[in-house]
Design brief:
316 residues; alpha/beta; 7-stranded mixed beta sheet; two-stranded antiparallel sheet; 11 helices
């Protein structure tokens, strides 16, 4: 059984045997067709007491929801998964700092991300730069440009600043579509070719890989982070360095272990082969990312995540 299929089964089981979806009965519509695992109320897709805060955060900051103007009722949304894991800790400086320190022990302080118009805190969602540096001609958070699922910002003991761009995956799998083909492909190459060639992190001889997913996303995010460093004098966030965080469930073998035709290798091996400094790329599971959280303070959140996303024993 594929990981995605196992998660569909998981959701159906939870709809019938738990209250993790707030009593939702499922059977909702997705793309005009009803499915037993689709929720009827999007509120039930969001974690507990933070639902209203999430909605207000997206609305006040002009952020687009995946697939529409409101949260999706699809329970396997990676955008929703990212929010459910991270939104409730975004104002807790010590919690965010503990996560950053587990990734980079040299980090000594968590810095507030002031580029949110509404409710700035220590984690930002669907982050974009102040100015378009990728020739995309748009900076709409969540759509039509390169934006980060989540972002953290810290200070190291050397007093330098480090950005943590986060790409969040859940059940995603990808085909072998070449995004460099056709008119749209020509536009993409026009945008990114010179940036790739000038990059200090991406190897310029790997253009044949950069236009296949998931590497197309990772390429753009790497360029985005580099440009935040290069343009630190004009950006609100003054960035000296970055660590690119890729959150992927280890059970998603269809994403992780696929042999990608563009490289002949698995996902992580492929992407590391594209990087000059492989230490700037960290792949981690959602459980490992949140491992530093205080169990007493965040026991309710961790139990929700365990039941909804993590523990396969919840199906029995």
């Amino acid at each position: 059984m594929s990981y995605r299929k196992s998660q569909y089964c998981r959701v159906e089981h939870l709809l019938q045997n738990s209250d993790v979806f707030g009593g939702d009965q499922g059977g909702g519509e997705y793309r005009k067709k009803s499915y037993p695992f689709i929720l009827q109320n999007y509120n039930n897709n969001l974690y507990g007491d933070f639902r209203e805060a999430m909605l207000q955060y997206f609305s006040e900051n002009g952020i687009a929801w995946w697939g529409g103007t409101q949260p999706t009722t699809h329970p396997l949304s990676s955008q929703v998964s990212c929010l459910n894991h991270l939104f409730s800790i975004r104002e807790d400086k010590n919690a965010v700092l503990s996560i950053m320190k587990s990734i980079d022990p040299k980090v000594v302080d968590a810095l507030k991300i002031e580029t949110d118009r509404f409710s700035p805190a220590y984690i930002q969602f669907e982050a974009v730069s102040d100015t378009d540096h990728l020739n995309e001609r748009a900076s709409t958070r969540g759509s039509n440009c390169t934006s980060l699922d989540a972002l953290m910002y810290g200070k190291r003991e050397s007093d330098s600043t480090v950005l943590f761009p986060i790409e969040w995956k859940y059940t995603e799998v990808y085909g072998n579509d070449d995004k460099a083909k056709g008119n749209q492909g020509a536009t993409r190459k026009q945008r990114y070719t010179s940036l790739i060639n000038e990059s200090q992190q991406l190897l310029a001889d790997n253009h044949s890989i950069y236009y296949f997913e998931p590497f197309y996303q990772l390429m753009r995010q790497t360029l985005w982070a580099e440009q935040m460093v290069f343009n630190r004098d004009t950006e609100t966030l003054k960035v000296d360095d970055f660590l690119h965080i890729h959150v992927v469930p280890q059970e998603n073998e269809d994403l992780l272990n696929k042999v990608y035709p563009c490289s002949g290798m698995a996902m992580e091996t492929t992407w590391r082969s594209c990087l000059r400094d492989q230490g700037k790329y960290r792949i981690i599971t959602p459980q490992k990312l949140l491992e530093p959280l205080d169990r007493d303070e965040y026991g309710e959140l961790l139990e929700y995540l365990r039941v909804r996303y993590w523990n396969p024993l919840s199906l029995t």
